[in-house]
Amino acid sequence: MPHSIDYGKLMHRAMRGLIQEVLCDVRDNGLPGAHHFFITFETTHPDAELADWLRERYPNEMTVVMQHWFDNLDVTDEGFTVTLNFGDSPETLYIPYDAIQTFVDPSVEFGLRFESQDESEEDDEEEDGDEAALDEQDIEAEDATKPRDAEVVSLDSFRK
């Protein structure tokens, strides 16, 4: 096959860079105003680190909320570490950027969705539907009272 430009891969890298830049700003300056994040990630990713009890409870994916209380945010080129409170139990998580499925800031109706290669191939075989929509079923936050509307950028709609 001749060499071609993989725009999907380039966009995913750029979107992960955006997440890294946002998290660096939050690490340095805190969350401004009403900003907060819903981050869904694959708990099965080989580099994801979380407590055994969380991995058992969320065997495939998990959505975390960074809003009122989080601590020890450390951002690297490959991912980030953060301590979050689950009930009254603080737990430290390491989330590689490659494990992130969605990143949503509902305070400004912004969201990113990362499609896996398998999902992309399945989508190519099906008719394009509402790929750009991210609804409440996609975000399974523990606190259902949080606003969840978001504008999502989906790369699949640009793929041929």
Structure characterization notes:
The protein has 160 residues and is an alpha+beta fold. The chain contains 3 helices and 8 strands; from the N terminus they run H-E-H-E-E-E-E-E-E-H-E. The protein has a 5-stranded mixed β-sheet, with no helix packed on it. Strands 3-4-5 form a 3-stranded antiparallel β-sheet, covered by helices on one side. A hairpin with a 2-residue loop joins strand 4 and strand 5. The protein is globular and about 55 Å long.
Spatially, the strands of the biggest sheet line up as 2-1-6-7-8
Q: Helix proportion of residues, in percent? A: 10-25%
Number of helices: 3
List low-confidence stretches: 119-151
What is the subunit arrangement here? single chain
User: How many β strands by DSSP?
Assistant: 8
The CA-CA distance between the termini, in Å, is 16 Å
Secondary-structure element pattern, one letter each = HEHEEEEEEHE
Short description:
The chain has helices at residues 7-29, 52-57, 117-125, and strands at 37-42, 61-66, 70-75, 79-86, 89-96, 100-105, 110-113, 151-153.
Please give a handful of descriptors for the protein shown:
single chain, 160 residues, alpha+beta, 3-stranded antiparallel sheet, 3 helices, 8 strands
Write the layout of secondary structure elements.
Blueprint: H1 7-29, E1 37-42, H2 52-57, E2 61-66, E3 70-75, E4 79-86, E5 89-96, E6 100-105, E7 110-113, H3 117-125, E8 151-153
Parallel strand pairs: 7-8
Antiparallel strand pairs: 1-2, 1-6, 3-4, 4-5, 6-7
